[in-house]
Amino acid sequence: MSPLAGPILTAAEIRGAEASAMAAGATVDSLMERAGQQIAVAVRRLAGANAILVVCGPGNNGGDGYVAARLLREAGLKVRVAALAEPKTDAAKAARAAWPGGVEPVADAQPASILVDALFGTGLARPLDAPDVPLPSSQRKLGSQAASAEQPPQETPASAGVMARNGAAATPITAKLRALAQAATLTIAIDLPSGVTTDDGRVLSDIPVFDITLALAAAKPSHLLQPAARHCGTIRILDIGVATTSAAQVLTRPNLPPPGPDAHKYTRGMVAIVAGSMPGAARLAGIAAMRAGAGYVLLLADDHSGPDALVHKPFAPQAIADPRIGALLIGPGLGRDADAVAKLDATLVTDHPLVIDGDALHLLKGNRLTTLATRDTPLILTPHAGEFDALFGASDASKIKRARAAAVQANAVIVFKGADTVIAGPDGAVRVAPGASPWLSTAGTGDVLAGAIAAMLASGLAPLEAASAGVWLHGEAAHRAGAAFIADDLAQALSAARATE
Ligand SMILES: NC(=O)C1=CN([C@@H]2O[C@H](COP(=O)(O)OP(=O)(O)OC[C@H]3O[C@@H](n4cnc5c(N)ncnc54)[C@H](OP(=O)(O)O)[C@@H]3O)[C@@H](O)[C@H]2O)[C@@H](O)CC1
Ligand SMILES: Nc1ncnc2c1ncn2[C@@H]1O[C@H](COP(=O)(O)OP(=O)(O)O)[C@@H](O)[C@H]1O
Ligand SMILES: [K+]
């Protein structure tokens, strides 16, 4: 059981990885047995001596549930199984046959302190209450081990079940799942919470928020993309012997060594920031750049407020021509007037590595974006959802797909911000940031991020690494800043975030 990290695989990619494992000698049954073993070990650790209810669906996610239930029972735990429908796959049928206890219809299942959701995983195809799934044909083997579990099930007429075959009014699956979850002290989803898509972070049904999700083999996009990610709770990855690789990775702590003994301010990186009609935003970015570790930050603004360490100069084409500039940031508080346009156009003709944020992103629409894409020097764009839609068009596609397409279009690294920030490069590399603090939803935090990224770019990191390091530092600073912080506090907290080894 390892923390959320490593590659992020779509449903098709995980099926490909599974196929490779099978080409190398594994079988669906052996993979399912291994998955069930790992789940049983994890659940046992989490459940203690508490009674467990495993709810199983008709596919291989349900199969994993039957295997885990059998192994947990063999380990002496009180386990009951409830099924939504008879297993459909051969492996799930075999797993069901090997489960020696009874099987209750989910609709009738009494709760247990530990709820294990093995209804659907990567095969979920539609909202939970949409399909006509029949009840298990053999109801249950009462008098078996099930009777010794906490709150053993009572006999219930078949007509009372979810999606009863006689067409009687059905209890919606989601309502039942919510009720079972509410009555449990710990809820554990196998692979994915049932009711979320695998690839794009959508939640198809009104499902509960789980305490823990045990992701099999690797993270999937919906473990990270909102709103699905918030239904996962704490995510742990289980190694089930399937090798996984992907161009998409969970964002992790960057390797940022402290300055060497021979460092000087220019070797640590010089950031220049173009200020505009709201100089406070550019100032915040400047403070953030300094606290993220830049050696020299130049604020191209007419006013002189802010910390003394921040060097001020009025904006002028010769000021941005300084060859020592390692990254030039434009956008925070720039405005969209003629002055802003002139500053942006002067900036775009330099050959400095660029970070473009905020208002400047709106001004890129059309020709400027097309021209920018032909530029060879490093470029990072940091849109929030509104800026992204304005620049690249709105779409229902997954945030990862959209960020990748935008990166190709702009020939730039895209930092698509939000509660689930996605960083994408034109070569298809993707990093997705997990667990951002919702307290970041306050004005000015994007300016702080832009400053942190500019500092990383000026330090010499490649654009994808610079953007990733900036997003990580920003997230770490937010956790350190705690609750109800303001953007100034966040910028301040970057120093401590940068100091972590
Ligand atoms: N990755 C690995 O290496 C390994 C993965 N393993 C496990 O396999 C899981 C994927 O299994 P899976 O492909 O069988 O899909 P799963 O999620 O069980 O559901 C598919 C079934 O549900 C049905 N169905 C779909 N939506 C529905 C709905 N709303 N309501 C009702 N029914 C619905 C669908 O029916 P159909 O659409 O075909 O009519 C089909 O019958 C994966 O998450 C992991 O747990 C391990 O066992 C081995 C190693
Ligand atoms: N609900 C949220 N949860 C986590 N992070 C968030 C949330 N809302 C915003 N953020 C983060 O806060 C920052 C806000 O940036 P932005 O929208 O540009 O704000 P501003 O323009 O006011 O500086 C981004 O880094 C974004 O990823
Ligand atoms: K599940």
TrEMBL record:
<dbReference type="Pfam" id="PF01256">
    <property type="entry name" value="Carb_kinase"/>
</dbReference>
<keyword id="KW-0511">Multifunctional enzyme</keyword>
<feature type="domain" description="YjeF N-terminal">
    <location>
        <begin position="14"/>
        <end position="248"/>
    </location>
</feature>
<comment type="function">
    <text>Catalyzes the epimerization of the S- and R-forms of NAD(P)HX, a damaged form of NAD(P)H that is a result of enzymatic or heat-dependent hydration. This is a prerequisite for the S-specific NAD(P)H-hydrate dehydratase to allow the repair of both epimers of NAD(P)HX.</text>
</comment>
<dbReference type="InterPro" id="IPR000631">
    <property type="entry name" value="CARKD"/>
</dbReference>
<keyword id="KW-0520">NAD</keyword>
<feature type="binding site">
    <location>
        <begin position="60"/>
        <end position="64"/>
    </location>
    <ligand>
        <name>(6S)-NADPHX</name>
    </ligand>
</feature>
<feature type="compositionally biased region" description="Polar residues">
    <location>
        <begin position="136"/>
        <end position="157"/>
    </location>
</feature>
<keyword id="KW-0547">Nucleotide-binding</keyword>
<keyword id="KW-0456">Lyase</keyword>
<feature type="binding site">
    <location>
        <position position="194"/>
    </location>
    <ligand>
        <name>K(+)</name>
    </ligand>
</feature>
<comment type="function">
    <text>Catalyzes the dehydration of the S-form of NAD(P)HX at the expense of ADP, which is converted to AMP. Together with NAD(P)HX epimerase, which catalyzes the epimerization of the S- and R-forms, the enzyme allows the repair of both epimers of NAD(P)HX, a damaged form of NAD(P)H that is a result of enzymatic or heat-dependent hydration.</text>
</comment>
<feature type="binding site">
    <location>
        <position position="61"/>
    </location>
    <ligand>
        <name>K(+)</name>
    </ligand>
</feature>
<feature type="domain" description="YjeF C-terminal">
    <location>
        <begin position="248"/>
        <end position="501"/>
    </location>
</feature>
<feature type="binding site">
    <location>
        <position position="384"/>
    </location>
    <ligand>
        <name>(6S)-NADPHX</name>
    </ligand>
</feature>
<comment type="subunit">
    <text>Homotetramer.</text>
</comment>
<keyword id="KW-0521">NADP</keyword>
<comment type="similarity">
    <text>In the C-terminal section; belongs to the NnrD/CARKD family.</text>
</comment>
<keyword id="KW-0067">ATP-binding</keyword>
<dbReference type="Pfam" id="PF03853">
    <property type="entry name" value="YjeF_N"/>
</dbReference>
<dbReference type="InterPro" id="IPR004443">
    <property type="entry name" value="YjeF_N_dom"/>
</dbReference>
<feature type="binding site">
    <location>
        <begin position="417"/>
        <end position="421"/>
    </location>
    <ligand>
        <name>AMP</name>
    </ligand>
</feature>
<keyword id="KW-0630">Potassium</keyword>
<feature type="binding site">
    <location>
        <position position="447"/>
    </location>
    <ligand>
        <name>(6S)-NADPHX</name>
    </ligand>
</feature>
<feature type="binding site">
    <location>
        <begin position="121"/>
        <end position="127"/>
    </location>
    <ligand>
        <name>(6S)-NADPHX</name>
    </ligand>
</feature>
<comment type="similarity">
    <text>Belongs to the NnrE/AIBP family.</text>
</comment>
<dbReference type="InterPro" id="IPR036652">
    <property type="entry name" value="YjeF_N_dom_sf"/>
</dbReference>
<keyword id="KW-0479">Metal-binding</keyword>
<dbReference type="InterPro" id="IPR029056">
    <property type="entry name" value="Ribokinase-like"/>
</dbReference>
<feature type="region of interest" description="Disordered">
    <location>
        <begin position="130"/>
        <end position="160"/>
    </location>
</feature>
<dbReference type="InterPro" id="IPR030677">
    <property type="entry name" value="Nnr"/>
</dbReference>
<feature type="binding site">
    <location>
        <position position="191"/>
    </location>
    <ligand>
        <name>(6S)-NADPHX</name>
    </ligand>
</feature>
<feature type="binding site">
    <location>
        <position position="446"/>
    </location>
    <ligand>
        <name>AMP</name>
    </ligand>
</feature>
<feature type="binding site">
    <location>
        <position position="281"/>
    </location>
    <ligand>
        <name>(6S)-NADPHX</name>
    </ligand>
</feature>
<protein>
    <recommendedName>
        <fullName>Bifunctional NAD(P)H-hydrate repair enzyme</fullName>
        <ecNumber>4.2.1.136</ecNumber>
        <ecNumber>5.1.99.6</ecNumber>
    </recommendedName>
</protein>
<feature type="binding site">
    <location>
        <position position="117"/>
    </location>
    <ligand>
        <name>K(+)</name>
    </ligand>
</feature>
<keyword id="KW-0413">Isomerase</keyword>
<dbReference type="InterPro" id="IPR017953">
    <property type="entry name" value="Carbohydrate_kinase_pred_CS"/>
</dbReference>
<feature type="binding site">
    <location>
        <position position="333"/>
    </location>
    <ligand>
        <name>(6S)-NADPHX</name>
    </ligand>
</feature>
